């Protein structure tokens, strides 16, 4: 099964999805139709048909969660430490920071250094997505930037140099054809 976010479901989301399937089982047993179940549970008809077929073959046990596709290699304590180290930045871990941020390869190396656990680059991507991290490009701003000066300029200087707004004015009289009235 594919998921839009590309990283699969978290354990809490897996539990929620399993509860949804087991709720569908109750409705199968009461004789509810596919379209009705899909509307009430806010899922697609196709999902309900697939669940019904599995239920007919193996009962409610067939719709129980099979668990995660792969077991995460990092424990929750290791993940917390990794997240803390990621927030410190790449410079703190000896990376030349010409990119001004983390790359998947750098995170993979950091995991190896900290925990002696091997991940693939794709595995690192899935791990980060599963925990709510996303691919972002850092904003490049000059060191001399002063937010206070910018706010003063916006409030005082810009209104004076900004051209006045143009209002809409009709350019000709209504164009009606002679004799069309």
Automatic annotation (TrEMBL):
InterPro entries: Homeodomain-like_sf (IPR009057), Winged_HTH_dom (IPR025959)
Residue ranges constituting the Winged helix-turn helix domain according to the UniProt record: 98-156
Name of the featured protein: Winged helix-turn-helix domain-containing protein
Species whose genome carries this gene: Streptomyces broussonetiae
